[in-house]
Amino acid sequence: MMMHASDRNSHKSNGAAFMTGWATGTLIGAGLAFLFVPKRGTELRRQISKSADKLHRRASDACRDASQKVNDIMEKGREVYRAARAH
Q1: Cα dihedral angle (52, 54, 59, 61), rounded to 10 degrees?
Q2: How far is 87 from 81, CA to CA, in rounded Å?
Q3: DSSP result, 32-57
Q4: Per-residue b or e along 18-27, where b marks 16 or more CB atoms closer than 10 Å to that residue's CB
Q5: What is residue 87's predicted lDDT score, i.e. its pLDDT?
Q6: Where are the domains of the chain?
Q7: Given a cut of 60, is residue 9 above it in pLDDT?
Q8: What is the mean pLDDT of the chain?
């Protein structure tokens, strides 16, 4: 069976596409491997501790802000009540 020139070019381009995909996959895989390399126990505990502290600060700040907003709303409600009662 004889291959035409267009068939040979198609095989070459498929081979090039495969090699490009293979090389890209290899680079992405290597990059992900470096991202997920296990850390030493002390380093991991330190990172978890920092993350927990950051989360605690954010939660405390959010709670304080919410409490302040509730107090502001209550004070405005009292003012409205007093004004309505005075009339």
Answers
A1: 150
A2: 10
A3: HHHHTPPPPHHHHHHHHHHHHHHHHH
A4: eeeeeeeeee
A5: 80
A6: 1-37, 39-87
A7: no
A8: 81
